[in-house]
Amino acid sequence: MENPEQLKDALLADVAAAGDLDSLEQLRVSALGRKGRITDLMKGLGALDPDERRATGQALNQVKEAVQSAIDARKADLEDAALDARLVDEAVDVTLPVDIGGQGRLHPISQTLDEVIAIFGEMGFSVAEGPDIEDDFHNFEALNIPPEHPARQMHDTFYLPEKSDASRMVLRTHTSPVQIRTMENEEPPIRIIAPGRTYRCDSDLTHTPMFHQVEGLVVDKTSHMGHLKGCLIEFCRAYFEVGDVPVRFRPSYFPFTEPSAEVDIGCSRDRDSIKIGAGDDWLEILGCGMVHPNVLRAGGIDPDEYQGFAFGMGLERIAMLKYGIPDLRTFFEADLRWLRHYGFVPMEVPTMLRGLTT
Ligand code: PHE
Predict the structure, then answer these.
(1) 138 and 43 share a domain?
(2) What is the pLDDT of residues 81-129, one digit of tens each?
(3) Is the shortest distance between the CB of 176 and ligand 1 below 6 Å?
(4) Which of 76, 230, 282, 335 is the most buried (most CB within 10 A)?
(5) Given 89, 117, 137, which residue is the final one in a domain?
(6) Please, what's the b/e burial string for 109-133 (b: 16 or more CB within 10 A of its CB; e: otherwise)?
(7) In whole angstroms, what is the distance from residue 200 CA to residue 172 CA?
(8) Against a cut of 0.85, is the pTM above it?
(9) Are residues 29 and 175 located together in one domain of the fold?
(10) What digits encode the pLDDT tens for the residues 164-201?
(11) Residue 99 falls within a domain, yes or no?
(12) Could you tell which of 134, 138, 172, 256 is best to mutate to test the pocket of ligand 1, judged by most ligand atoms within 8 Å of the CB?
């Protein structure tokens, strides 16, 4: 039988020489595994006479323990060394210059929305939200647009498949349903804006099937048409950053407001550019009016006690005007070159919406 002392010396030398965790593991198996050298010797003990068996058994146990603890110690050393090597390998030099080329841009829609929220925020409005998938009641009926009303045709609605009760959900055609949802859930005084996506089955140079609107709603006991005008004129001046931007209120029609108006701003146009605030041309930017009594009633508010105004504007439209973006469709083509050109470097100050949603 192999001499236990010699075996121990040989194995310890092998352990000391093992250069990595894999060869150490192989060594462990070949010494202490089920068919390992020490295990083999242990199996041979049965053939020895009792005295010799005891002596050799004790010696082999010592070999086993010595080899096992040498392997454990070597393993810990190798693991430490591997970790040190990785730390060196993955070290980050924080003094290297930053790669500015990798910095993202804010989409003009996000930027414009931030600006709109900041301006109305200053005036005491808070931000409300509603679902993109709406029921007929909130998108039409409660807004004084009954089933056969001609205004429904103006909306080019996307309908979802019919439900078992024959009703159909719609992709909201405007943000006005958020007026109803807010009135259902809040007591006056109400002063909200509701930005969000809207959908119409329409696509050409000036229409995309998905676009963005910002709704506004004020309901209290005293707000009147004069407040509506003051509020929107103030908005136009702040947003377009032109102190005396000409603003015109032109009579119009919406089923959910009475009286209704559309707001135009003064501009000058030549062949391929528009200049806000000068010249004698007009450009429509939003719809507005005094909330119709039927709409207040549908929202659970008594029109004999309360009144208010509402407005709705297209975000893409006012973004195009302010930032000179000529083609609406480019907003949604996800072209990085376009985004690098028209996008905005994020400001360091967190703005209201990102502060709320992240
Ligand atoms: N919802 C109208 C539209 O999409 C805009 C609007 C909102 C008009 C609120 C008046 C009051 O065209």
Answers:
(1) no
(2) 999 999 999 998 888 887 666 678 899 999 999 999 999 999 999 999 9
(3) yes
(4) 282
(5) 89
(6) bbbbbbbbbebbeeeebebbebeee
(7) 8
(8) no
(9) no
(10) 998 999 999 999 999 999 999 999 999 999 999 999 99
(11) no
(12) 256
